[in-house]
Amino acid sequence: MGSVEGGEKKALGWAARDPSGVLSPYSYTLRSTGADDVYIKVICCGICHTDIHQIKNDLGMSNYPMVPGHEVVGEVVEVGSDVSKFTVGDVVGVGVIVGCCGSCKPCSADLEQYCNKRIWSYNDVYTDGKPTQGGFADTMIVNQKFVVKIPEGMPVEQAAPLLCAGVTVYSPLSHFGLMTSGLKGGILGLGGVGHMGVKIAKAMGHHVTVISSSEKKREEAMEHLGADDYVVSSDQAEMQRIADSLDYIIDTVPVFHPLEPYLASLKLDGKLILMGVINTPLQFLTPLLILGRKVISGSFIGSIKETEEVLAFCKEKGLTSTIEVVKVDELNTAFERLHKNDVRYRFVVDVAGSKFVEETTTTTPN
């Protein structure tokens, strides 16, 4: 085993420099490493809608330069002296979180994604004071606690979306006891998370209704993803048809939308599970909740344990993501297309197969 302790390492990535969100080559040093760290050569990385919010400072919390990317798959090239979970040559994944306090109630319950001191895989500051940078780069250094093994035989480009989109759907279904067969579920929004929602729910034996804003994804949802029903949300007759019928709705829509039509679709004790990052207030009439004992809940990605579970589940069921592979120098075009919902259904960046170049000017981090 090679040791990664002590020395800093150079990395090449693609970074946003300002709220325009335009990415360009960026050279930087990785944070200092320790005995529990894993040095990873990145193979590929999925593109998530949240990456758009971050690079464009939609949430008002962005720091630049920023290398995004939190659906990272790579190969272990070195490990620290105390690393026990991984060896050189392992194919591994890194998701949204790379640090936590380790002592709070969520951390003690293996729910580190809800730790108030969680450290994001990019656009954050690590414990040593250095900025974290994500997976649109040639290498990363991550504490072994936040690294997962990719199941043997699973294609790396298929594994990447499971590290965010896949576990984001799996976690609430597991938490709320919605994994038994025979349930009726709704998937609101058929993007990167939504398409995985359809596949995972179907693999659990659920009757799945896709609720979308237009007819354009009907054939895709029904014939290719295996949905049982498809409803256009603006069609009042169709929405009435599914009233009081669903055990849950996974709401993946990342922009403002009314909640009443979907609450009306839930049966007694039904759950509307919000996943979209929306920076404007949502609203609803309380009788829609009160008269059906319905629940509006949020759910945020999943734990490391749940990430391992969803990888094993998808391997066992033979589930794959529907993806489009791009090179690093196509990132800006991919982000433009993702902003227009012009992707089926997840971009995955072929990092290892891309050519990285040194930046032409030196940039001082904010």
From TrEMBL:
Pfam entry (one): ADH_zinc_N
A biological process term (GO) from this entry: lignin biosynthetic process
Gene3D superfamilies: Medium-chain alcohol dehydrogenases, catalytic domain (3.90.180.10), NAD(P)-binding Rossmann-like Domain (3.40.50.720)
InterPro entries in the record: ADH-like_C, ADH-like_N, ADH_Zn_CS, CAD-like, ER, GroES-like_sf, NAD(P)-bd_dom_sf
Cofactor requirement: Zn(2+)
Transmembrane segments: none
Origin: domain of life: Eukaryota
GO MF annotation, one: zinc ion binding
Swiss-Prot/TrEMBL keywords: Metal-binding, Oxidoreductase, Zinc
Keyword Metal-binding recorded: yes
Domain Enoyl reductase (ER): 21-349
Entry annotated with the keyword Lyase: no
Cross-referenced PANTHER family: ALDEHYDE REDUCTASE
Family recorded in the similarity comment: Belongs to the zinc-containing alcohol dehydrogenase family.
Subunit description: Homodimer.
Protein name as annotated: Enoyl reductase (ER) domain-containing protein
Lineage: Eukaryota, Viridiplantae, Streptophyta, Embryophyta, Tracheophyta
